[in-house]
Amino acid sequence: MEERHTTDRFLKKYGIHRESIDIEEICRHFLEEMERGLEGRESSLKMIPTYITPRTDIPVEEPVLVIDAGGTNFRVAVLHFDRDGKPVTKDFKLYAMPGTGGAINAKRFFDTIAGYLEPFLGRSRKIGFCFSYPTEILPNRDGRLVRFCKEVQVEGVEGTLVGQGLLNTLKARGYSGEMKIVLLNDTVATLLGGMAVYPTRNFDSYIGFILGTGTNTCYMENIGDLGKLKGLAGEQGTMLVNMEAGAFGKAPRGEIDLEFDAGTINPGEYVFEKMISGGYQGGLFLALVRKAASEGLLGEKFRTRVERITRLESREMDEFLLHPYSDTNTLARCCAAGQEGDTDRQVLYFLMDEMAERAAKLVAANLAAVMRKTGKGKNPCKPVCITAEGSTFYKSRLFRGKLDFYIKTYLNEQLGFYCELVKGENTTLVGTAIAGLMD
Ligand code: BGC
């Protein structure tokens, strides 16, 4: 228990302890930022309208080309829905996301993806293009890239229309057929894919949530509340909104968060994502552990060994939790032998546990803000369906149980909102296909 007290004291001193997270206050800030973003006022949340209305009448037996450009992989497939509404993937190809293996220019980027798409052309004139980067969507459902993230380095695409860029490239390469591209964020695809998973269940509303390399949330908003879309004022119905929640700027950050952020390629931006998502967890934890070692929480042997580590992946943290005595895991190898090593390991465990606790509180605040904004999910027999995706959500060993705890104690018991977290198969591809089939 002594290790737990020491890590608690240390984390409180650096403002990274769970107690520094007032879930109700953060939820209120989230709500305020959401409202400002929807009205087009200054806000850390972009609240991007997608021009997509959720639908359940999915066209059957009609093929659609699906592109999924994620942080690591680039996937292309042909999909259709059979007469029972079940998605059928006909062909599927997996590539590395262009720009992940060193910087490339826009021409190379579009040429590469056009090349990946070419074998599929002619199978459908409709393309659903899932693009997991902050992108402003236009009424014709093409999108203007705000910026690349997740270490993807492509010069010259920011500020340009991604779908149009691809169409122009296909044309320049000799393809003359008419194509229609619907560009959408991965959280939007997740939400739509999730809707297709349980067509007969009664849900009050839907949320798409991702906690992977990055984090983000999409939900169904009343069109009338989208104050920034002046042309749609007074219209009825709902539209999916991509919050770009990873950029939320009102969560309290500690000294180590600030130090870590200063060393990233985009300091001051996407600070919420940097506190919780898989792409940053390893780096943040390394900074935390170094500080703890310099303050004597970890042994001298650990301190000298950890100084030599230049990079830590979030995956290695989970490996440590599974095999703390392993002789191949980066963190376990830094621990001393014997009693001193036992202390090192326990300190590492409690530090990770606290980071997961903080992440769970922040995610619960994020989801609660959406439910409060829409007022949906008050009836436990008709909960909000939250389709969750992302390696960090499913693989982080300590996170999920804690999230369920805050959903129960805060969302259910304190606020009286109910949700169900669901996992679908291939929700990104399925949701992208649904969007691509839209007229
Ligand atoms: C991007 C979002 C994306 C999220 C999850 C973030 O880094 O800005 O657009 O939805 O990652 O992939």
Describe it.
- This protein is α/β, with parallel strands linked by helices.
- It contains 15 helices and 15 strands.
- The longest helix is centred in the C-terminal third of the chain and has 37 residues.
- It binds beta-D-glucopyranose.
Question: What is this entry, summarized?
Answer:
This protein has 439 residues and is an alpha/beta fold. Helix content is 42%, strand content 18%.
Percentage of residues in helical conformation: 40-55%
Number of helical runs? 15
Give the end-to-end Cα distance, rounded to a whole number of Å.
Answer: 61 Å
Please give the number of β-strands: 15
Low-confidence stretches: none
Order of helices and strands: HHEEEEEHEEEEHEHEEEHHHHHHHEHHEH
Form type? globular
Query: What is the alpha-carbon Rg in Å?
Result: 23 Å
Q: Would you tell me the structural class of the helices and strands?
A: alpha/beta
Largest sheet, order of strands side by side? 1-13-12-11-14-15
In round numbers, the mean pLDDT is 95
| Amount of beta strand | 15-25%
Most strands sheet:
6 strands, mixed
Hetero compounds: beta-D-glucopyranose
Reconstruct the topology from this structure.
Layout: H1 2-13, H2 23-39, E1 48-49, E2 64-69, E3 73-81, E4 87-96, E5 104-105, H3 106-117, E6 126-131, E7 135-137, E8 143-145, E9 154-155, H4 162-172, E10 180-184, H5 186-197, E11 205-211, E12 215-222, E13 238-242, H6 255-262, H7 271-276, H8 278-294, H9 300-307, H10 314-322, H11 330-334, H12 338-374, E14 384-389, H13 391-395, H14 399-415, E15 419-422, H15 427-436
Parallel strand pairs: 2-6, 5-9, 6-10, 11-14, 14-15
Antiparallel strand pairs: 1-13, 2-3, 3-4, 7-8, 11-12, 12-13
Bound molecules: beta-D-glucopyranose.
